[in-house]
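Input record (Table S2, row 305):
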Amino acid sequence: MKILQCFVSKCRITAVLLVFMTALFVPKAGAAEPLPVVVTLPVLKDFVAVVGDAHIRVSTLISGSESEHTYTPKPSDLVRIQKAKVLFQIGLDLELWVQPLIENADRPNLPIITTSKGVSLIEGGLVDGHGHGAANPHIWLDPQNVQIMIAEIKKALIAVDPEHRADYEKNASAYLQKLEKLEAELKRKVAPLKDKRIITHHPAWPYFAKRFGFEIRSNILTQIGSAPSAKKLGILIRQIKKEKIRVIVSEPQLNQKIPLILAEETGAKVVPLSPLTGALPGTDHYLDLMRYNVEALVNVLEKVQ
Ligand SMILES: [Zn+2]
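Output record (zinc ion complex):
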C-alpha cells in the first residue's frame, strides 16, 4: 500500500512538473511568434526586415542572382505563400507572376502591399515582355523613393500587427535618417564629375541616374531574355564612338557578352552595377548596394574624364 501511495504521489509530481514545463515552453496565445512575411525581390526583403526587425520573419521569392523580370518558381514558394500573413511587391507590372502564384497557393485573401504607391514615376520600362507597363518599375534605385516605400511598409506592418506599432515607427524613422545621410554623401562623390554619360545594360537605371545626375545615353537591352540584333549593336557602336561615351554599365543578372563586345569595339570601359541586393560582394543590404553602385560608377568615370 505504501509503495502504491509513493508511486501515485510520484506520478502527481511528474504531472505537476509536466504542466509547469509545458507552460514554460509553449508560447502564450497572441505573443512571440514572428510574423511570416513574403516579398518578391531581395531589396524588399531588406526594407521589410529593417522596419519589422525581430517581429517578422521575411523571405524573398526572387534571389539577387536572378533578373527581377524573370521568376523561376520553386515548390517551397507555394508553402511560404500559404503561411504568409502579408506579401510585399513593387507593382507597376514588374511582378506579373505573383497573381498566378497566389491563386496556386489558394490564398485569395492574402494582403498584397504595392510599395510603389505614391512614388513619382518615370516613363519607359522594357519594350516588351515583363514590366512592359508605361512606368519604369525600378523605383528603389532612388533613395528618395525608398523613403516612400518604407512608409508604405511601416503602415502595412502596423495594420497586420498593431501591437508593435511603436517599434515599427521607431525602426522606420531611424532608417529614413540613414537614407538621407547616404544620399547626401553619395551626391558629394558625384558632384566633381564633368562627364556623367553612360550606356546601361537594361532600363533599370533612370531613377538612379536622375537622383545622382548621371546621363543614360542608351540601353543595350530593351527586352530581357533576347540578345540585341546585329543592327542594334551596330547603332550602339556608332553612337558610343561618335559621342565618345566612355563607360558601359553591365549587370551580373544578365549576359555579360554584349557589354564586353561593345567595350572591345569602342574602347569604352565596362563597370558591373547591380539593381538588386546580394548579387555583388558586400551588397547584401540596400545601403551598401547604393554605395557600391555610385562609388563603382564614379571610380570608372573619374578615370575617363
Ligand atoms: Zn529590370
